[in-house]
Amino acid sequence: MRNPWAQSGNYRTRYEQDVTIFANYREIVSVVLLLVALGLLPLWLERSQVLVLNFIFIYAIAVLGLNITTGYAGLISVGQAAFVGVGAYTAALTAPYLPFWLTVPMGGLVAAGIGWIVGLPSLRVKHLYLALATLAFQEIFVWSVGRMPALAQGAAIPVEMRNFLGYEINFRNHNFFWYYVILLVLVLMVIAWRNLLRGKYGRALIAVRDNDRAADAMGMDPGRTKLLAFALGAFYGGIAGGLLAYFQRAVVIEEFTLAKSVTFLAMAIVGGLGTVVGSLLGPAFIEYLRLWMERLSEAIKHNPSVQQVIPAGVDLASALLPLAFGLVIVLFLIFEPRGLYNWWRLIRSYFRTWPFKY
């Protein structure tokens, strides 16, 4: 019998082996070591660095949902920020009456219900027309929230949680407490994502994405599959929104605009559509790119010699961030359409096959 710890290459002989979560024991050990490292990481980080990681984890949950809708089912959605907003506002409205471990799932369920409704146009249209339908929902959400007195007309709604099971949450430990909460939720959502998509529903999503008429001929229901994809994607967005509301201690409409939806789409493209690893790498790359561009913009603003070179009337510092975003998306689409995940796949493949035991 072959040593399972020395597995390399792909020599699966049964279908059950082909749909396992982990390919071999080394992957299990790698994931356990990664989780231990993430659990210990805040011990060496400052509050500001933990703050960035919290945003990356929250955005990763939202991008996981977008990857179900767009990456797996092939349904273009530019309204993911609105689904995140639905979850955030649901958590904000129910937080005074319910504990957070109920308000966050409730935000996901409400977002899933709205996602099901928003997905109805996918039964008749696709591609650019479907993208415009989700764009319309995004704009309707922002317009509606901005005019509803119950939602403070888009102004900040406080969401406070000062105590959890006797543990006091204050200014000093706020980021660290939510780091572990968000990380736990992210791990659970990733496990659910993997289990859902490796089964019949995942295969149905891929079949509908590749050819919905062929999927219909094979006995699948393309309409119900598309609605399921929108509902699941919105559910993930709603969960991310609920966590975002508690972490930021407030909900404000500026966090859920079209620009944020485009950013989520950029994270999914840069990370790699339809992949778990890409859903984590994309938000990390875009979030750190934003930080670096902001620092570079500040350096340009306060550097007189650089300001003299820039033509009068050109605000290069303000244009740097959108310019970098657009350039990164175009470059990835041209040179690496499979995103950062493809680099990870090549590295993993090298170590999996090395030193070519079989």
Which properties best describe this structure?
ABC transporter involved in vitamin B12 uptake, BtuC, 358 residues, 4 strands, mainly alpha, transmembrane, branched-chain amino acid transmembrane transporter activity, ABC_transp_permease, two-stranded antiparallel sheet, single chain, globular, two-stranded antiparallel ribbon
What do you see in this structure?
It is a single chain. This protein is an all-alpha fold. The chain has a single domain (25-353), classed as ABC transporter involved in vitamin B12 uptake, BtuC (Orthogonal Bundle). It contains 15 helices and four strands. It has helices spanning 15-18, 25-40, 47-72, 80-94, 100-118, 128-145, 174-197, 200-210, 212-217, 222-248, 258-271, 276-301, 304-309, 316-335, 340-353, and strands spanning 157-158, 163-164, 167-168, 250-251. The strands form two sheets. A two-stranded antiparallel ribbon has the order 1-4. Strands 2-3 form a two-stranded antiparallel sheet. A hairpin with a 2-residue loop joins strand 2 and strand 3. This is Inner-membrane translocator.
Mean pLDDT: 86
CATH architecture classification: Orthogonal Bundle
Strand content: under 5%
Ends apart, CA distance between termini:
13 Å
- Secondary structure class reads mainly alpha
Task: Record the strand order, biggest sheet.
Answer: 1-4
Write down how many β-strands occur, each being a DSSP E stretch of 2 or more residues: 4
Low-confidence stretches: none
Number of domains: 1
Here the CATH topology equals ABC transporter involved in vitamin B12 uptake, BtuC
SSE sequence, one letter per element: HHHHHHEEEHHHHEHHHHH
Principal-axes geometry comes out as globular
CATH class: Mainly Alpha
Q: How many DSSP helices?
A: 15
